Task: structure prediction
Amino acid sequence: MPITAVTSRYANALADVVTASGAALDPRAAVAELGAFASVVAESAELRNALLTPAVAPSRKRAVVERIGAVLGTSRIVRNLLFVLVDHRRIAMLPDLAADFETVMDERLGFARAEIAAGLELTAAQQSAIAAELERITGKRIRARFAVDSALIGGVMARIGSTVYDGSVRAQLAAIGRSLSAEGES
Result:
């Protein structure tokens, strides 16, 4: 999901507000609240249509956002951002904004996102060990997302940003093959 200039501006503005000294809202709570509201909108076609259609007056859209926000326990800061999105007819970008805000907050709080793939489902202990090793290697706290990739024979592949750590059996076999061919040439 690419960060656009518009969603980046909104995400950074919200991040500035929630990370300011004396902020009334914990940054992790802001991420959760914005994500929860985006999920509610994504799950309801009727709600999405009501918020997106120009036939519904902005004041009615604000009332809907206010009511849903109250039910979800959404903070005033996040609700105000949602009102701004409604007023500027940008509520359609809410899913991207929520994802971008989470990314911005991870960066500001010193987290790195890791996409980790293994040939089989990993146990909780294995996941913890892999995350700990990636933290040691990168010097950052890791937010790991694990997936099963049936194309992997064994081992693990991790991607953090543009860096790939390939501990798969295929990569190890390729390294052995290169080593043997180099020895054969000497």
Q: What stands out?
A: The two ends are 48 Å apart (CA to CA). The first helix runs from residue 5 to 19.
